[in-house]
UniProtKB/TrEMBL annotation:
Organism of provenance: Halocatena marina
Similarity comment: Belongs to the NOP10 family.
Designated gene of the protein: nop10
Lineage: Archaea, Methanobacteriati, Methanobacteriota, Stenosarchaea group, Halobacteria
Keywords carried by this UniProt record: Ribonucleoprotein, Ribosome biogenesis, rRNA processing
Protein's name in the database: Ribosome biogenesis protein Nop10
Any one GO BP annotation for this protein: rRNA processing
Key word Phosphoprotein present: no
InterPro entries: H/ACA_rnp_Nop10, H/ACA_rnp_Nop10_sf, Nop10_arc-typ
Length: 60
């Protein structure tokens, strides 16, 4: 999924919280801005079952 909303790539080092923008650079610090959308869901993911099992074990 491609979103028009971008977030500062180095917000954890330079800002107190995420800085969102529509531009390709951060308006505050000038570093690159990256896509803020999460990775797409893939129903044919081979390792999804294993990843979910590891996540369940970590919460137990």
């Amino acid at each position: 999924m491609i979103s028009d909303i971008r977030v500062c790539a180095s917000w954890q080092e330079h800002h107190d919280g995420p800085v969102y923008t529509l531009a390709s650079t951060c308006p505050v610090c000038g570093s690159d801005a990256v896509n803020s959308a999460p990775a797409p869901y893939d129903p044919t993911d081979r390792y999804g079952e294993y990843r979910r099992a590891l996540k369940r074990r970590a919460h137990e």
